[in-house]
Structures are given as structure tokens and as C-alpha cells.
Amino acid sequence: MQNDIKNDSIVCSEKISSTDDYDPHMHRNAKNPTNNWQTFAHFLKASIGTGVLAMPSAFAHAGYVNGIVLTLIIGLLALYCLHILIGSMYVLCKRQRVPYVSFSEAMKLGLQQGPPALRCLVPIAIPFVDGFLAFYHFGICCVYVVFIAESIKQLVDEYFVTWDVRLHMCIIIIPLLLIFSIRNLKLLAPFSSAANLLLFVGFGIILYYICSNLPPLSDRKPFEHYTKLPTFFGTVLFALEAVGVILAIEENMATPRAYVQPCGIMNWGMCIVLSLYVFLGFFGYWKYGDEALGSVTLNIPQSEIPAQVVKIFFAITTYISYALQGYVTAHILWSKYLSKRFKDVSKHTLYELILRTVIVLLTFCCAIAIPDLSLFLSLVGSFCLSILGLIFPALLQICVQYERGYGPYNYKLIINLLLLIFGLFGGIVGTYVSIVDIINALSK
């Protein structure tokens, strides 16, 4: 094992000096590449999910001053980590002379080339990262099943007949199977564009409600007690982070360099996302204060037509997001593990569709089996996202920069160590708070 690692390091060292002219982006050959506008639509749809509706509730746990400042800090940290992650993956591609390496493959290569003390983690790097990504995005799909079914139930209860939410889950299985059978992001792009349009119209209606008859701002707290901040941290990070989908979007681009440029897709997209999150969080908290619920759609008048339209719009956009989030789980399981087991290539499409059907049915079963799924997934989200979105990118750059150095005064090493500490602290505290919430909910 040690000899293999040593040989890998020697080979990589030789390649560093001989591959400076190799540009992985020029050799990228995606099957169904997306253009910049399609990629931008996917980025917005992946980053603006149901979590944004919880921002007023998140601000209620932080105060409006803390909420604005900390949302921007967390968002910029998440964006920075995405940049160092994609940048480190690019460097590894350049060293290995390959067009693309996945997140998990990058972690393995990085650990092989990083500090010797970390090389014992090489054997578990790929299954560990893949497992976290697949499980987290599977969990998001479970939440989406519940959200869509509850949105439909509220409408049906209002105008037709009262049914159990589980019946509505059964009804949406076929539509979910249909959209989840779309196996490439290029075909999903028109759906993402339409969903983004519905999102912004829906937000406009919500803002109409929350910006009318605002109480005096002095009635709201600029700062909340620090003991409430872990809940705020978990909510914002869960809402902002979609690292698996964001990497999948970049992988399928026709011009991947446009993704990470200073005025590129990722930076512009995150500016829009952060502005929307801060705006909705601030005005939602200003309007409803501590009475802000887990989804702001529950605070607006339930019987009025515009409010019902909002529920329809968000149910549709969440339905489309289901296909985007589930793409990560299906892609990892099929492309990396299962496709190799079936030698008859002519049946790969059929087998992949069967796998996607199984994933949909499993998300449906989990949504039905667990009464309050959001509590359990907030636990998984706090744990997984701190690792995937903060700790792993920082650790990867530490490894990738190990041979070249960390710059003047080792500033890159210091920044990444701070990110590791922040990620560990946020993950531990967020996990603890989630466990306490679960215990309290079960004891009621």
C-alpha cells in the first residue's frame, strides 16, 4: 500500500512539471452539453429550493441584523468553498491529463498527493464521498415528496374533499416517475427555466403579502440569543448548499470555464440567490416576527386566490427540483457502481430506468413511513452539508497545494484550517440541536 502511494506521488510529481499546457476544459466531452443560459437556469433552480421559504423563520432565530450579516457570510463561504473545490478538481485533472474527475475521485487523488498523515484515508475516500452525496440528495427528494403532497392537499382540502396526505403521495408517484425518467440535464433545462419563472412570480406574490401593512421595525429584534443561532445556521446552509447538483451542472457544460470566471455563472447566480434569501428573510421576519412558520406560505392568508396560486407554483417548481436533486443519486449509483455489472450495453437504458423507478418508490416509502421527515433530514443535512460543503473542499485544497506550498505566510493553509474548524463546529452544534429537536418532538 505504501509503495503504491509513493509511486502515485512520483508519477503525479512528474506530471505536474510536464502538463502545464494541458487544459482539461478543452478535452471535456459531455454527451448532452448545456449552454450557458441552460446552465444558469439549472444553477438558480438547484440553489433556490423550498429552503428559501424558511428564511423568515431562520431570521426569527437570529434577529434581522444578525440574519442579514450571517446569511451573507454563510453564502460567501459556501461560494468560496465551491470555487476552491472546482479549482482543486481542475488542478488534479491537469496533473492526471484527464478531462474530468468526480468529487470522490478528486478526494482520492488529493489525499494521495497530500500530507503523508492523511494518506491512510485514501481507500475510503471514494465510497465515503459518494455515499454522502447520494444519501443527502436522496433525503432531499424525500422532503420534496412530502412538500408536494402537502401543497396539493391544502388545495384539495380547500375546494374539494379532505384526504390523508399519504393518498396525495400515492397520486404524485406517476408524475414523479415521468420527470425522473429524463436522464440528462439538457432535456431538463426547459423545465428549469419554466420553474424559475414560476418561482419569481410566486416570490412576487409572497412579497406583496409580507410587504403590506408592515409593523414598526422596532417591534423586531436586531439580535437574538446565541443559543438560537445553530438552528439559523442549519436552515441557511441547508437552503443554500446543493454541492452535488452544482458539480453535476458544471460537468455537463459545453463551456465549463464560464462557470467559475469572476463574472461567471456561479458568481452571478449566487448574487441573485443571496439577494433573494436576504430580502425574503428580512421582510418576512419584519412582517411576522417570531410567528414566522417553517414555510412562509403558511403565514400568508390560506383562503385567498393569490395564496393558492403560490402553492400551485411552488408545488410545480419542487416537482422539477425533484428531478435535479435525484439526478445526483441516480448518476452516482448507476454510472459509478451498477452500470459496470451489466455487460449488455444495449440494456443499460432499461436498467437505469428501473433504478430510477426504485429510487422514486424508495423516496415515496420513506416519506410515508416517517411521520415528520423534516426533523430527521435536518439532522442529516446539518451533518452532511458541513462535511460536503465546507470540510471536504478545504481538506482537498490542503492536499492539492501540499507540493506547491500554501502561498505567503501559508495563508491558504490558515484559511482552510479555519474552514475546517468552522465546518466541524457547525456540523457538531447543528447535529446536536437537530437531535434535541427530534427528542422533543417524539416526547410530545
Commentary on this structure:
Residues 1-19 have low confidence and may be disordered. With 444 residues, this protein is mainly alpha-helical. Helices cover 73% and strands 0% of the residues. It has one domain: Amino acid/polyamine transporter I (Up-down Bundle), CATH 1.20.1740.10. It starts with a helix and ends with a helix. The radius of gyration is 22 Å and the shape is globular. Helix 4 crosses helix 10 (229-240).
* Arithmetic mean pLDDT: 84
Per the CATH scheme, the topology name is Amino acid/polyamine transporter I
Total helices: the number is 17
Total domain modules = 1
Q: What does the overall shape look like? A: globular
Largest sheet: none
What is the topological layout?
Elements: H1 2-18, H2 36-47, H3 55-60, H4 64-96, H5 103-113, H6 122-159, H7 165-171, H8 173-180, H9 185-210, H10 229-240, H11 243-251, H12 257-260, H13 265-288, H14 305-338, H15 348-369, H16 373-400, H17 411-443
Notable traits:
single chain, 444 residues, mainly alpha, Amino acid/polyamine transporter I, globular, disordered N terminus
Summary, kept brief:
With 444 residues, this protein is mainly α.
